[in-house]
Amino acid sequence: LSGRSDEPLVAEGSLENAPSVLFDAVVILDGDRASETFRRDGRIHEFLRDAYRHGKTLLAFGSTSALFERVGIMPTLPDDTPDPGVFLGERDAWTDALSQFVAAVGRHRHPERDVDPPLI
Questions:
Q1: Whole-model pTM?
Q2: How does pLDDT run across 62-110, given as a tens digit for each residue?
Q3: Which class for 111: exposed (0-12), middle (13-18), buried (19 or more C-beta within 10 A)?
Q4: I need a labelling partner for 101 at 20 to 30 A (CA). Which of 39, 84, 108, 113 fits?
Q5: What's the CA gap between 61 and 29, in Å, rounded?
C-alpha cells in the first residue's frame, strides 16, 4: 500500500477471495450501477452480514445506503440508540460521515451489537 497519491494502490483481498472477518471495515461507495449490482449479488449480502456480526465498522454512501436495510443492517442498536459502527453518508455530506467512520474504525470492533442469538 502507498500513501502517495501518484502511486497505485494495490488491493490484495476482496469479497471474492477473503472473508469479511479479515477486513477492518467496509465502505460502499455511491452509484446507481453499484446499487443495482450490489442489490442482486448474494455474496455481497453475505459479506455485509458477516462484517456486521463481527462488529466491523460499516459505511455506505448515497443510493447504496439502501443495501444495508435490504440485508438487515440498521443504523441503530436494538435499544434504538445509534450504532457507533454503522454510517450512512449522504451524497452532499460525505465528509462528516467519513470523519466519524475513521474514528469508529479506530475502535476495531463494536461489541454493542453482540446479542444472543444474533439479530441477522
A1: 0.82
A2: 888 889 988 989 999 988 999 999 998 776 667 777 888 899 999 989 9
A3: exposed
A4: 39
A5: 5
